[in-house]
Specification:
- The protein is mainly α.
- The chain has two domains: 177 residues, no CATH class; 235 residues, no CATH class.
- It contains 23 helices and no strands.
- α2 runs parallel beside α16 and α6 packs antiparallel against α7.
- The chain starts with a helix and ends with a helix.
- This is Sodium:proton antiporter.
- Its main location: membrane.
């Protein structure tokens, strides 16, 4: 019965993805299926509701963080924080370094904001626009951007996926970040080298100066606009709570928007809820977006996914699959099992959050070292989901930037990270 229900759920998800129907409908159907499963297993309605609430409760910090991220990204757009970075980056980019610049800039912005989707909708769009103006391959540029936006989504101190992993594994977020940084060094350097080498073969073109002109005329770009960014960096270095860091950065950005950019005070509530929507069409195309409403779809998906997690745990839905995973552990190592499991869960769930939660439920019991397991999740489930073309983790960002699906093949960093970690873990095991 368990496999049948998972099969039906996966089929409906794929139908929604390929037909363009909102994935939320499939998530709701899945909730009905798994809720009914519990009732068939002699669980009461009250018990099933409690299981569902326990799943949501485990992810409540993630949901609140999504809301704060929506507010912060809108404020950063209005205050000129993102525009400042884009303006000066556009002035130094040449066709030969565009791929490398796209990867590095998206890595930087995603690290600062902790959101892959937000980075794709801002810096990703700018980088793709610049790449197209220089006749750089859409596939290569899209791959560099996709890899960059998930660099920070994995290891930023304000990343919801990093926060989710620390919550699920009961580990310290900042200790996890240290381990992630060490694991990322070699894949990051190799990725930079590959993108730089590929960039040398790019057709000669010129940078799009119009972007800088438009931003320079609309915003008052001074060092003060980087203050909200500095707050994130300083607070993160001081290990301040993630939610407080986001709130402080957003509040600082509001002051910058009002005092430096002369943003109308009466429009601040609308800015936080609906996002930055300037009247200037060019600026709106480049910088418009953010706000709580921009994350509502993701919040809904995460909320429903959390219900699945609680139901699976309460009804022991995954018991049979856990036995299989326990046997695999001794054959392909714990990380190899986690990586393989994350591929399957990402393929079935079509989203990063549920893949992380399911992989944790399936593999957590077989990994007593929670700190090591947290790194395993970060180097598997977090980066595997964006590599599946039908997952919203890749489909949504690529749609934002107007890149083809084949760009998934050029997201070099996302492939290198789990491969390198698998090699390094096996090396350490043999050394011991």
């Amino acid at each position: 019965m368990e496999l049948l229900l998972l099969g039906i759920f996966a089929a409906v998800l794929l139908v929604c993805v390929f037909t363009g129907i909102s994935i939320i409908y499939a998530m709701i159907l899945g909730l009905v299926l798994f809720f009914t499963y519990g009732l068939i297993k002699k669980k009461t309605w009250k018990q099933m509701l409690i299981f569902s609430w326990q799943g949501v409760k485990a992810a409540k910090n993630i949901l609140l963080t999504f809301i704060l991220i929506g507010i912060m990204t809108a404020v950063w757009r209005a205050s000129g924080s993102i525009a400042f970075i884009v303006y000066y980056a556009a002035g130094i980019c040449a066709p030969s370094i565009m791929l490398l610049a796209s990867f590095l800039l998206c890595s930087l912005v995603s690290f600062l904001t902790g959101t892959a989707f937000g980075t794709a909708a801002t810096m990703g769009v700018i980088c793709m626009t610049m790449a197209k103006s220089m006749n750089v391959s859409d596939v290569l540029a899209g791959g560099a951007i996709l890899a960059g936006i998930y660099f920070g989504d994995r290891c930023s101190p304000v990343s919801t996926s990093a926060l989710l992993v620390s919550e699920l594994t009961k580990t310290d977020l900042y200790e996890n970040l240290k381990g992630m940084a060490k694991a990322a060094i070699v894949p990051f350097v190799i990725s930079c080298t590959v993108y730089w080498t590929l960039g040398l073969r790019t057709h000669i073109g010129t940078a799009d100066g119009e972007i800088r002109t438009v931003l320079g005329e609309f915003y008052h770009l001074s060092a003060w606009t980087l203050l909200p960014v500095a707050v994130v960096l300083v607070f993160s270095a001081m290990r301040v709570n993630v939610k407080r860091t986001l709130a402080a950065s957003a509040l600082c950005g509001i002051f910058v928007a009002v005092l430096i950019q002369k943003y109308p005070v009466p429009k601040l509530p609308a800015l936080c809820v609906s996002g930055f929507q300037p009247d200037d069409m060019q600026i709106n195309r480049l910088m418009g977006g953010g706000g709580i409403l921009s994350n509502m779809k993701v919040i809904a998906i995460v909320g429903i996914s959390s219900c699945y997690s609680g139901i699976f745990k309460g009804t022991d839905f995954l018991h049979g699959i856990k036995d299989l995973i326990r046997k695999l552990n001794s054959k392909i190592t714990p990380f190899g099992t986690t990586l393989l499991t994350s591929v399957v869960t990402a393929a079935v769930s079509c989203n990063q959050t549920l893949s992380i939660m399911l992989t944790n439920q399936l593999c957590g019991e077989n990994n007593p070292d929670k700190k090591e397991f947290a790194l395993s999740l970060e180097n598997s489930a977090v980066v595997v989901a964006p590599l599946l073309p039908w997952s919203i983790a890749s489909a949504v960002p690529l749609a934002f930037i107007g890149a083809p699906t084949m760009s998934v093949c050029a997201a070099i960093y996302l492939y290198l990270l789990p491969i390198w970690y698998f090699i390094s873990v096996n090396f350490r095991r043999k050394k011991k």
